[in-house]
Amino acid sequence: MPQLTSADGTTIAYDRVGAGPPMVLVDGAMCLRGAGPMDALAERLADRFTIFTYDRRGRGESTDTPPYAVEREVEDLSALIDAAGGEACVYAMSSGGALALATAAAGARITGLALYEPPYVAEAEGDAVSADYTARLDELLAAGDRGGAITLFMTRVGVPPQVIDGMRAGPGWARFEAIAPTLAYDNRLLNGSRVPRELAARITTRTVVLSGGASPDSLHQAARATATALPNAEHQILEGQTHDVAPDALAPALVDFFG
For the domain 3-123+194-258, what is the CATH superfamily, name and number? Predict the structure, then answer.
């Protein structure tokens, strides 16, 4: 598989499929190639775009270089945009949206930006819940309790306890535990789960912020607040969709926006 070397020496593994203008897909928390939504989405977009998917640092076939800093992940995504030809449109899912915004603000040549439900949920629920999540996550990871950290995250995003129990007993749980430390990376990117308004004000890239019609109101509020903070953005709702957005519903919206 193709690989690139980021500025700090971290190896970033990626895939490239399709033909057409370049588009980079950015995963959210606990996702990687082969275990997330981007593979199916890439298949549905490959007839219109050259699609780049990648393992964010600390995941899958990519390596990691401690200590973590948001700037290092920005360098990773910027390097992939360079590998795509120096400029690309970017679609980012969930907390990956925070990475895409930071990269756009840093000056990467992003020709268009689409975000799906960036989880700035403190806009709706206040700061206390996010602060408590951060403290508990850091405590669990510091103690080496990767399973506990994953359970905390899944509970936070609304996965029912019985579903989590079933996943813990399944063969894929070890894969989750392998990338559990990256939960702290996404949490750092979200920085208290508030829209980064000062950063967003510097981003003039044409942007669409999407949310699912069946998603919780906190995610709708987050999407609207994000779109409002960006100088050149609109908010769109994909009716009937949740945070687990269906590729068949998402792909046409991206084609329409980027096409």
Answer: Alpha/Beta hydrolase fold, catalytic domain (3.40.50.1820)
Domain spans in the chain, listed from the N-terminal domain onward: 3-123+194-258, 125-186
How many Cα atoms are found within 13 Å in the side-chain-facing hemisphere of 158? 9
Long-range contacts (CB closer than 8 Å, 24 or more residues apart) made by 178-182? 179/30, 179/32, 179/58, 179/59, 179/60, 180/141, 180/146, 180/147, 180/149, 180/150, 181/58, 181/141, 181/146, 182/29, 182/30, 182/56, 182/57, 182/58, 182/59
Distance CA 137, CA 116 (A): 24
Rounded to 10 degrees, what is the CA torsion of 128, 200, 83, 85? 160
pLDDT, tens only, 78-105: 999 999 999 999 999 999 999 999 999 9
- The CB-side HSE value for 38 (13 A sphere, CA atoms) comes to 30
- Identify the pLDDT of residue 1: 77
pLDDT in tens, 131-162: 999 999 999 999 999 999 999 999 999 999 99
- Which distant-in-sequence residues (6+ apart) come within 8 Å of 184 by Cβ? 68, 137, 138, 141
Report CA dihedral (252, 54, 96, 35) to the nearest 10 degrees: 80
Q: Which tokens go with 189?
A: 């990117």
C-alpha span between 38 and 35 (Å, rounded): 9
Q: Which residues of the chain have pLDDT under 70?
A: none
